[in-house]
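Researcher: Checking consistency across runs. Here is ABC transporter B family member 9 again:
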Amino acid sequence: MKEEGESGSGRKGDDEKVSFYKLFSFSDEVDIVLMFVGTVCAIVTGMIEPLTTIIFSRLLNTFGRTDPSKMISEVAKISLIFVYIAIGTGIAAFLQVSSWVITGERQATRIRGLYLKTILRQDIAFFDTETTTGEVIGRMSGDTILIQDAMGEKVGKFIKLMSTFIGGFAIAFARGWLLSLVLLSSIPLLVLTGGAMAIYMAKMSSRGQLAYAEAGNVVEQTVGVIRTVASFTGEKEAVEKYERKLEVAYASTVQQGLASGVGLGTILAIIFGLYALAIWYGSKLIIEKGYDGGRVINVIISVMTGGISLGQTSPCLNAFAAGQAAAYKMFETINRKPRMDPYDTSGTVLADIRGEIELKNVYFKYPARPDVQIFSGFSLSVPSGKTAALVGQSGSGKSTVISLLERFYDPDAGEVLIDGVNLKKFRLGWIREKVGLVSQEPILFGASIKENISYGKKEATDEEIREAIELANAAKFIDKLPLGIETMVGEHGTQLSGGQKQRIAIARAILKNPRILLLDEATSALDAESERIVQDALQNIMTNRTTVIVAHRLTTIRNADIIAVVYRGKLVEQGTHTELIKDPDGAYSQLVRLQQGKNEAEDQATDTEEEAAKSLNIEYGMSRSSRSRTLSLQGLVSGSSASWRALSFRYGHPLPNDVHDKDLYGEDSGEKIDAEEETRKKVSITRLAYLNRSEIPVLLLGSTAAGVHGVVFPAFGLILSTAIKIFHEPPHELRKDSRFWSLMLVGLGAVTLIVASVQNYLFGVAGGKLIHRIRSLTFRKVVHQEISWFDDPENSSGAVGARLSTDASAVRSLVGDALALVIQNISTVVAGLAISFTANWMLALVILAVLPLVGLQGYLQMKFMEGFSADAKVMYEEASQVASDAVGSIRTVASFCAEKKVMDMYRQKCEGPLKHGVRQGIISGAGFGFSFIALYCTNAFCFYIGAVLVQNGKATFEQVFKVFFALTISAVGISSTSAMGPDTNKGRDAAASIFELLDSKPKIDSSSDEGAILATVRGDIELQHVSFKYVTRPDVQIFRDLCLTIPSGKIVALVGESGSCKSTVISLIERFYNPDSGRILLDGVELRKFKLSWLRQQMGLVSQEPILFNETIRANIAYGKLGGATEDEIIEATKAANAHNFISALPHGYETSVGERGLQLSGGQKQRIAIARAILKDPKILLLDEATSALDAESERVVQDALDRVMVERTTVVVTHRLTTIKGADISAVVKNGVIAEKGRHEVLMKINDGVYASLVSLHMNSSD
């Protein structure tokens, strides 16, 4: 979606949106009927409102002039008309809303389906260059909702409002054009004020949003890298920075309060002024032009009704504009014709396919990287039934061959032939069915194992599926699963291990029974055991098929019929293994040598070393625990859902936001949450008020203003009803009274302006202060939580940021806004009742009985203005999940020709939401219709009762209208303010979650000042019988009874396989976690006894992913020293870290901003800045966690030099994969199965036969690239 803005910014005008009628281009006959009915009914509903004003004015004249004895029969006639109108409008309103909601829902679902269908048929290049999964899902869930909004009930609403507007003004001019003209002249003033008001409010609110966004950034930056913050004891600094940002936000909150108060006050004042003008001028017309009272009131109410309707059309117009803009991009995609179309049925189909493959003089560049030539004149031929293996360094173009054979891309020049026919001539769907693909990252869909396998063949029988599973060596593990073949694999297959996923992918390929099999690194991501099993499965299915293999591990391809060595897009040699190995200088022999790692001597080993370090990293990266800072894809997918959100937040692209929490917490999380809900609900309002205690005087003043504000509506009713009566007075009284009541209305307007401004300003101050206080208290608490708290996905940086921003404002609405509303409503009720009961208690009682109906009607009307379309996003989540799976793995969908299958699944998932939408339409229509029936029937009833009382001498004309207006206007006032009112439940939950956090007591509290401090630190560290489990994975025992002594000033290297939790030792020494049992000592004193902040000051941590803050280089380095560092100290540190030269060479030197997460610098530069930061601290203990693993050879050398200088005379604990580092260590300790298996110097450990260390080293030497 970002692209749309950018690409269109140059020409973003009218051409970036669809014309309005085009939105309906996907409607069918039913939709057209629905839209027709909806339109007619909307016009009827709209016209009725102004028509009732005529009847109302007749009613007034009846009351004003009729002889009391005939009153009942006259009024009864008019009341009956009201009842008829009620029934008519009810039906029309029901049909209007339900027709439009239903047709909107139907058409939006159809557009979604068409969009997905079009997306699935696009060529792969389209996904490389023009779109992302996030964008597609964003469009399907976000944009279709905007489109639905623009073509659903909003259209009906707009037609209704416009017909009310036209009808109102038509009637006003017909009944009294002169008065109408005078009133019209003041309408522009109202529009201008409203507009200016809205603009200013938007400006203020965006300024506030900006400040809060910056504060949110601080949260994100702090929580996201909490380990770095904790290890440098930077909590206090983070809190101060956050407070500074909050100050700015507070100021804009207050201004916003004032602005909204002034705006609301001004608008009300102008409206009251208009009424004043109307009463004064209307009286003049009665005296001079022979108007009657009914006509004057009729004109006033018609103009008001029409004007208000016009004002209410703006949300509809906004929705139309948004929908038209959203539709532009979607419709553009729907109409896009792909270069290769899987739905296209033209093209050659062979009766039988032998499977001969030939690439002839192929030239190719990826569309996404047009400047990189992959193949220039590449040729390769594979005879039918033979196995060809492609080998070469990474990036040499091996996988590209497979993409060309699947026809994901067409070559720029040259041909790809199968059985001598150019691939472009075949029917795309047919040829893809003959080719089976198993890729490096097996892509599974969030469905059952059975469904995943049956992607291979449309109508596969259970026997065929079973056979495929057995051939793929997968039967054993599937049968062990509780649900067997019906087991759900989780999103992206996260519930299964790599080997299991790969075998299911192979079963899927076998089921397809392809003539040509393509294996792209099919076993690279597996450990040795799974690899053997998967390899066997592959051997089973390669027989009698033409097979093309891409592999890194040469052991897997020795038996291939043809081995082709690819180097930089050229075929450098080909032959069998035995032929190629004979040439010792050939490319293949060199590759083999590289992998066997014969060069034992360190000097010659540097090449292998780098390759090995890299490869080790690849494998380690894949399986390291999710808590490690490796950004492997799997980490992202199976990590917290917030990391998706954080990413999407950062790159302006929503990634699939459906990483379901179920997977994270297991199935039973529901029960746990319910229990939490129970404890949550009980929040004492007193405690909240206590947080706001320093603003009590402000709140009291604000409440007084709110009380006065509440009286405004009943007072208006009183003045209006009196004014109606004066129209029937003799001229001289009329003159005097009209002037008096007009001035009263002007006065009321002035009071409203003052009161509304004061009320909103004061509540803005109190609310702003409360938000500020809650946020800073909560953030302070968050920063000092123990690290294990952040391991819980619920507390990821995105979640904490959201909690801080939404919770605080929800609580504010509970205290400030809700309080203002309650007081305002109470005073409205009291005043309304007082006026009506003093006027006529009998009538007041009768009207009170039916008032709830009027109140309900007002509430329903307000809700209708907001819109009924239930949050379709949530409804369509499951369907979006299907789409997101399919688009995210479009290559798999394409290669299995599963487009139709995906569409069927998608349609099936859309059925429920569509039915729900239709039901929703009918319900909301019924509600809307009922609201009209209630309104007109209660009016008819009240006037009839009034007539009875007047005829019996129990009431007068004036009293009837006084009671009626005082109560109905009060009811309308209350219902409209309540509908605008905040959601108290949200506020309650938010308050509960905030207090829950504020009351929590972290076990490792970095804010506490208690604990011992040593005058001098030697740096002896000892771990005694330590056992440990991570809180988030209580079933995995990390250490059992681990003992390790780290002598002062020595270098200790921790080595071991990946996943042996070497980094956890460092976390325990930093006291990020406490061991479950056993002790950790520093200089003979247990870590728990030290003051935490002092302890962390003694240690310098450099981790694998260097974490920098979005500040200047200087600020990042100075972060290492509490209380600031001098220029000389900083330069000394950077020189020691080998960083001074490159920093000085930058245009801004030390003032260069490093960008978010340090993105402006290379890996090696970031790492050296992180080292400088650790050096500046001058720690006694240095902890290096894979500090060089993520770097390329050159940077690694530079950083390693820096580290070697720094380690001198410090106790150093190193976690590393690098041989040279391990060899230089004083002690190497091998971590295996949660204990130290061996320890000693490199030479000693190498002599142990079959030792863990020795085998690790040899594995390292023999590692592949």
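Researcher: Does this match what you'd expect to see?
Model: One thing to look at in this run: The longest strand covers residues 373-382.
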